[in-house]
Amino acid sequence: MFYYYYDWTYILVLIGALICIAASARVKSVFNRYSTVRSHTGMTGREAAEQILRRNGIYDVQVVHIAGNLTDHYNPGNKTLGLSDTVYNSASVAAIGVAAHECGHAVQHATGYAPLSIRGALVPVANFGSMAAWPLIIIGLFMNGETSAFLINLGILLFSAAVLFQLVTLPVEFNASNRAVKVLESSGMLYPDEVGSVKKVLGAAALTYVASAASMILQLLRLIILTGGRRRND
């Protein structure tokens, strides 16, 4: 006889996936909308980034062109600020907003912003945890006694490190966006209505980080539910 097992916890994974898809679609839609709005200064993303870095006394960070769409990032390891195809040479309001946000990370690094340092320290642990957690848990489920409980608990602990990384990322990203808005307002690089558009772009981008954190929390909850009974029995 064929037995069908329904695992209701897959609903948690589905909810997390839908949240991430919705957030990703939102940021792409908002960015595409304001990427067609040219700034009054005609300044490109690269020029905006270089000016913001100089305003903050940062001269050892190189602004470089990288491939892709919305792949922009700041690398504290080699002090490079990578701007994507849609930002580097674009004079749109959206491009300047994204460039200013990445400069926010460079300023965080230069000023020793604590959450950024914590996130950097968590990167290797989070990467290892996200890869090793499930194999350890699965092996633990096929074993008995204390060894089983140890492997399951270790897997959950490692996955929790990946969740913690996502949570620490939130204040880092929000702070970088706040820094971007403030410098664009105070420098006169954008008009007030253009700064309002930047807030919409960065707000939509922030939702993707919230969605990622929510998805990871739901996955952790699923792990705890799936293994809870086994750990109590052991």
Q: What characteristics describe this protein?
A:
about 230 residues, mainly alpha, three-stranded mixed sheet, about 75% helix
Give an overview in words.
It comes from Mediterraneibacter catenae. This is Zinc metallopeptidase. Keywords: Membrane, Transmembrane, Transmembrane helix. By secondary structure, the protein is mainly alpha-helical. It has a domain of 157 residues. Helix content is 74%, strand content 5%. Strands 1-3-2 form a 3-stranded mixed β-sheet. Strand 2 and strand 3 form a beta hairpin. Helix 2 runs parallel beside helix 4 and helix 4 packs across helix 7. The radius of gyration is 21 Å and the shape is elongated.
Helicity level, as a percent range?
over 70%
* Beta strand count: 3
How far the N terminus sits from the C terminus, by CA atoms, comes to: 30 Å
- What's the average pLDDT? 91
Contiguous runs where pLDDT drops below 50 for at least 5 residues: none
Q: Rg, please? A: 21 Å
How are helices and strands ordered from N to C?
Answer: HHEEEHHHHH
Binned strand content: under 5%
Strand order of the largest sheet: 1-3-2
Cα shape? elongated
| SSE-based structural type | mainly alpha
**What's the number of helices?**
7
InterPro entries: Zn_peptidase_2
Protein name: Zinc metallopeptidase
Keywords: Membrane, Transmembrane, Transmembrane helix
Pfam family, one: Zn_peptidase_2
